[in-house]
Amino acid sequence: MKSVFRLCRKITICLLLVTMAHIAYVKGAVPVDTGWVTMGPTQTAVSPYDQYYYKLVQVNGSTARYGTTIELAVNADENYFDQQATYQVRVDKYEGTANRFDGLEVRCISGNPAAATFYVFNDALWLRSNYKWGLISYRTVAQFHGSPLVAAPFAQTTTAPVGFLATTGTYGLKCDFDNNKFYQLPYQDTKGNLAVAGNIGVGVVPNYALHTVSPGNTNRAAAYLWGENYGTAIGTLNATAANYAFAVLNNANPDGSSAPGGGKPLLFVRGDGNVGIGTSVPQAKLAVKGDVFALKIKVTQTGWADFVFHPDYKLPALQDVEQFVKEHRHLPEIPSQKDVERDGLDIGEINKKLLQKVEELTLYLIEMKKENDDLKKRMEAVEKKQER
Question: Where are the alpha helices (DSSP H) in the chain?
C-alpha cells in the first residue's frame, strides 16, 4: 500500500508541475535564464540622479582576436514608448593588430536609435542611456575566438568619456579603424522616418545621392513621384549656370555619362534661372533650340505705336523715306537683316515698330486721299468751264 501511495503522490506532483508550466506559458512567462546580463541602472540612486556611462567592450590583449556580435537592450522609463531600444554591436579584430580593433559596428535594430549615446574609441566602446529610470543589459549573440566584453562593473562612472574618435546618439556607425574612417548607417526613428546619409541606389550601385536605373522599361516610367497636394520640389543652395538645378538628358548611359554619339540636352534649368530646351547653355530666361508651336502667344509690352496719331507727331517726308531705303535697304527704325541674324528679334518691340509703319502708311494714305479729292474737284471745275 505504501508503494502505491508513493506512486500516486509522484503522479500528482508531476501533474501539478505540468499544469503550472502550462499556466506560466499561457500567461506569457519566459524562462528565467535568457542569456541577458544586466550591466546596471541608467542613473544613480540619489538626487540629482546622474546618468551612468558604461564601457561595453575593449581590447583585452594586443594579440586578441575577435569576431563577436552583441545585442544591447537599453530600457529606460517604461511609461514611454520612445525611451527604449535594442542595438546590435559587432566587434572585429585580427590577432596581428596590436592594441586596437579593426572594425566596429553599432546599429539600432528596434527603430529608436536616439535611446542611447555611444562613444567610439579605437580600442573601446562606451555608452549611456539618453533617458533615466531603467536598466541596461546585453547578451552575446555570436562569438568567434575571444570576447571583447568588459567584466562587471563595466567601468561604471558618471563622468563622460573624452578623447573618443566618434560619437552618435541618433544613428548607427560603421567604423573602419584600419583607414580611420567612420560611416553613418541608415536608421529609422520612432515615427517610421528613414534617414540615409550615403547614396541610395535602386537597380544600381549608386554614384549619386539618389541613383535609379530601370533597363528595358518599355511600358512604364523609370520613376514616379506623386503628391496629393504638392508635387516634386527641387532645391539647390548656390547653383550657378554651370551647376544646373534640373536637367533632362537623352542618349545617356546608366551611370550618367554620355552614350556614343554624345548626350543630347532636352531640358536644362540653370542656377541663374535660365531655362534651355534643346540647349544646355541658355542665354535667356527661356532659350529654345528648335521650332516653337503654340495656339496663342501673349507678350506684355510697355508702350505702343499710337503716338503716331498724336497731333505733335512729325510724319517723315516720303522723299526722306525713299532716300533712306535706297541707302540702307530697309525701313527706318526697322532692324536690318544683319542685325536680325546677329541679335534676333524682340517680338513685342518689332510688332510695335511694324504697327508704327502701318500707322505712318495710314497717314500717308489719308494725305494722298485728300490730295486726290482736291485734284478731282479741280478737274471737275475745269470740265464745267469747258462745257460752257
Answer: 2-26, 318-328, 337-343, 347-387
pLDDT tens-place values along the chain, 388 residues long? 545 445 555 454 444 444 444 444 334 333 445 689 999 999 999 999 999 999 999 999 999 999 999 999 999 999 999 999 999 999 999 999 999 999 999 999 998 999 999 999 999 999 999 999 999 999 999 999 999 999 999 999 999 999 999 999 999 999 999 999 999 999 888 888 888 888 989 999 899 999 999 999 999 999 999 999 999 999 999 888 888 999 999 999 999 899 999 999 999 999 999 999 999 899 999 999 999 999 998 888 888 999 999 999 999 999 999 999 999 999 999 999 999 999 988 889 999 999 999 999 999 999 999 999 999 999 988 888 887 7
Residue entry with cell 510697355: 302
* Residue 17, helix vs strand vs coil: helix
And the C-alpha cell for 373?
479729292
Rounded Cα gap, residues 84 and 89, in angstroms: 16
CB atoms near residue 217 (< 10 Å): 10
Cα–Cα distance measured from residue 266 to residue 247, given in angstroms and rounded to the nearest whole number: 8
> What does the alpha-carbon distance between residue 177 and residue 166 come to, in Å, rounded to a whole number?
11
Distance CA 107, CA 187 (A): 8
Q: Cell numbers of 304, please?
A: 505702343
Instruction: State the alpha helices, DSSP H only, in 27-57.
Output: none
φ and ψ at residue 129, rounded to 5 degrees: -75, 145
β-sheet bridge partners, residue 51: 43
Q: How far apart are CA 14 and CA 304, in angstroms?
A: 108
Tell the residue number behind the cell numbers 517726308, with chain if given.
Answer: 317
Residues in the chain, total:
388
What is the DSSP secondary-structure string of 332-354?
Answer: TTS--HHHHHHH---HHHHHHHH
User: Nine-digit cell at 328?
Assistant: 540702307
Q: Going by C-beta distance under 8 Å and a sequence separation of 6 or more, which residues neighbour residue 84?
A: 73, 74, 75, 76, 78, 110, 112, 115, 134
Q: Any residues with CB less than 8 A from the CB of 176 and at least 6 apart, and which?
A: 103, 182, 183
72-94 as b/e, with b when 16 or more CB fall inside 10 Å?
bbbbbeeeeeebbbbbbbbbbbb
Separation CA 284–CA 372 (nearest Å): 51
